[in-house]
Amino acid sequence: MRSCVLAILTASALLAAVDFNTQIRPVLVRECLGCHNADKATGGVAVHSRDAITRGRAVTPGKPEASLLYLLLELKPGQPKAMPPGKQLPQAERDAIKTWITEGAPWPEGVTLSAGGSGKKDEKATVEQLHARIAKQASERTQADMKPYKATIPHAGVSFDMVPIPGGEFTMGTPDSEAGRKKDEGPQRKVRIDPFWMGKFEVAWDEYRLFMFANMAKEDVNKDEVVDAISRPTRPYVEMSFGMGINGYPAISMTQHAANKYAEWLSAKTGHFYRLPTEAEWEHACRAGTTTPYSFGADASQLGEYAWFSGNTDGKYGLVGKKKPNPWGLHDMHGNVMEWTLDQYDPKGYVGLSNDNPQNVATQPYPHAVRGGSWMDAAAQLRCGSRVASDPSWKQQDPQLPKSIWYHTDAQGLGFRLVRPLKVPSAEQMQKYWNNGVHDEP
Amino acid sequence: MKTGALLAGAPMLMQSAPSKSIKVGLVGCGGRGTGAAAQALKADDYSELTAVADIYQERIDDSLGRLRRAAKDKVKVEPNKMFVGLDAYQKLIDSGVDVVLLATPPGFRPEHLRAAIQANKHVFCEKPIAVDAPGVRHVLETVKMAKEKNLSLVAGFCWRYSNFIQAAFDQLQKGAIGDIVSYYGTYYTSPVKPMPPESTRPAGISDVEWQVRNWYNFVHLSGDGLVEQAIHTADKIAWAFQDKPPVSCVAVGGRQIPNGIGNIYDHFEVNYLYPNNVRAFLGCRQIEGCYNENADYILGTKGALTIGRGPLPRIEGQTTWTFEGPKNDMYQHEHDVLFAAIRKGEPVNDGDRMATSTLLGIMGRMAAYTGQMVTWEQALNSQERLFPEKLDWKGSFAVSPIAQPGITKLG
């Protein structure tokens, strides 16, 4: 019985005049998913899965005339219940949906729709709106215009500090002679970097929790449709600071995807473009014009003045900004929490990468490059050139499959800070920075 | 090590032991069940998934899609071994599997566990194992049957399989902090799966289906937050007291934040009395925007063991100790132990302690719901049956009103 039904479905999918992935899915995501999804099923209708779309009245497989999805699309704009609100879809798209329903609404196994990982609104449209907001506000044009600044997250009374990082050339990687050097820290080469601002401190729970909990950011009473369209972390099952403290302490255990979405959210909240640093930008900022293992020299015995690390912590991280800064005014680049970068980690080092603002663009969920060492690490791992590769074991406390795209519960020394490049990128580039495309791991 | 080679040379294996492959069936294809299946497939070179059961075909499809991405060659579920409906578990058990993974909402658990053991299956059973005392007693009988049949039964009280928590409790049992004076355990978190508004209820689904979809919010399905989530803390308390029962408990609890038609509380604080006037306190809360903490503070006559303040447990006092070395993957370890036991023909059985830990939570809930002091015997012998004898998928089930201390009677 079942095998017979499956066989028919499979056959119809093979012979189908309509292809779900190229013709149906984009329309559902673009036009319907924003109001009819797993979290919010307006009118009791949701379209994110075949279960959802056939459970209500949206789609009766085989019967377009008994499917709201088809019927309401055919109504002229302005008629009651016409969908999508305020416009009518092109004839070709409506025809495709009708044919698809007639064919039994085939849906690939295991597919759940989400918009750019957000499950909400079309990510591209959101980023375009956001880009327009940012482009309007950007006033600095040259490196000379760049000053340190303090910005406040609206309605929350929480601020953060950014300091300018000069552009120019620096030597990335460590010399063979450096004590503690590992093979992945080279080959050394000259790299050119464009100017940017960087967070003076690691992102603290004070800021990050506003992103985790919309009500703490008072977004329920201060609606902003762009902010609202950005996906946010699911509520954690456990207490994410593990009792190490919140106020003034660094946020930890977030995935790179979560850090990217925080950057997008902060950009929407403040009107400036923020993102994670590339690995090259991070090392440039950490070295701050120096060439020694640490930005204060080579003497690891001084490390305690500059960093929280295994030598001076007692089972927990430290408050951000309590240690001496590097020559460019950045605190805790060495230690406290190791920090996310955008890059895919390559154990072979920097072979084959550009010398001009290099970035090893991610194509796999693991590993990504993490820098700076943490409160749990020994001195050698805090060196400017030392690298860590993200690992699936960082999610081993997550018993579910799929595992959360938001938490690395087992990486309790993992955090991040953001940069703001002087040159505002295009909307398309912004979308790539904020969506690594590989957050949904197998 | 864990291959069929060992098996080939092994003498007489128990009747239900597989010849080479170990066929696994998954009951409940949500996120946890799918995760458990992935771990089962990793735990043995020749484990394979051959049957799945859920109330929705779509969830089965989602789950199998995920599992094929994780372990393609070991997912061998023919379409006629995908079972849908409230009776799907029985069809799965009858489909020729060797191991059954039970990962549905807990209300169903006693019945599912009994059916699996009756049919001579080894079982991985998620926590908690019941939502009421009749369910616990039913499970205790089943556990006895499993022992008689030499079947393995591993429970999803995962901290028992964590190397760093095990090490901490080893220290405790060795007397590193002397005799226990008090135990304070916290489970203060954000809400888990809150009840969606009725406006989002899809047209045409029955009350029972709507409740099962939102099972966490109904005491007959989840057991409430204390029994479903904070049960991990109850389990650690039980562990600290060597799985011996307390004398009695009193508790406070209630709900501050409205939660639609759900009937569970959002906070509890339980005070357990152990012999010799030793006390254990368990606090749990699921309210957004509050102070969160998941920790255990165990005071002894010679020092204190603290878990959950920082990533590693530590002992301070006459001796100091902390865990060193890498933490294991406790969820994987549960399945590694289960499958190794099956291969060796040396059954493991977590049954008694999983029942004790679950009843510890149920007892606290009874005390909070009624406002009465509850003894261990009262809890164990309680006739209050929350999960119905029969659930009709198309029917309705009248949800009991949220409990009111002083008014709600001890059942």
Write the layout of secondary structure elements.
The complex is a heterodimer of chains A (442) and B (411).
Chain A: H1 2-15, H2 20-32, H3 50-55, H4 68-74, H5 91-102, H6 123-137, E1 149-153, E2 158-165, E3 168-172, E4 189-193, E5 196-199, H7 205-212, H8 225-229, H9 256-270, H10 279-287, H11 303-306, E6 338-344, E7 368-371, E8 387-389, E9 414-415, E10 419-421, H12 427-434
Parallel strand pairs in A: 6-9
Antiparallel strand pairs in A: 1-2, 2-5, 3-4, 5-10, 6-7, 7-8
Chain B: H1 4-9, E1 22-27, H2 31-43, E2 47-54, H3 57-71, E3 82-84, H4 88-93, E4 99-102, H5 109-118, E5 122-125, H6 133-148, E6 153-155, H7 163-173, E7 180-189, H8 207-213, H9 219-222, H10 225-228, H11 231-240, E8 248-254, E9 267-274, E10 278-286, E11 293-300, E12 303-307, E13 314-317, E14 321-322, H12 330-344, H13 351-370, E15 374-375, H14 376-380
Parallel strand pairs in B: 1-2, 1-4, 2-3, 4-5, 5-6, 7-10
Antiparallel strand pairs in B: 7-11, 8-9, 8-15, 9-10, 11-12, 12-13, 13-14
Helix pairs in contact in B: 2-3, 2-12, 5-6, 6-13, 11-13
Can you walk through the features of this model?
The complex is a heterodimer of chains A (442) and B (411). With 442 residues, chain A is an alpha+beta fold. Chain A has 2 domains: 117 residues; 311 residues, paralog of FGE (formylglycine-generating enzyme). Chain A is 26% helix and 10% strand. Chain A has a 4-stranded antiparallel β-sheet with strand order 1-2-5-10, covered by helices on one side. In chain A, strand 1 and strand 2 form a beta hairpin. Chain A is elongated, with a radius of gyration of 24 Å. Chain A starts with a helix and ends in an 8-residue tail after the last helix. Chain B has 411 residues and is α/β, with parallel strands linked by helices. Helix content of chain B is 35%, strand content 20%. Chain B has 14 helices and 15 strands. In chain B, the strands form 2 sheets. A 9-stranded mixed β-sheet of chain B has the order 14-13-12-11-7-10-9-8-15. A 6-stranded parallel β-sheet of chain B has the order 3-2-1-4-5-6, with helices on both faces. In chain B, a hairpin with a 2-residue loop joins strand 11 and strand 12. In chain B, helix 2 runs parallel beside helix 3. The longest helix of chain B has 20 residues. Chain B is globular. The N terminus of chain B is likely disordered. At the A-B interface, helix 1 and helix 3 of A face helix 2, helix 3, strand 11 and helix 12 of B.
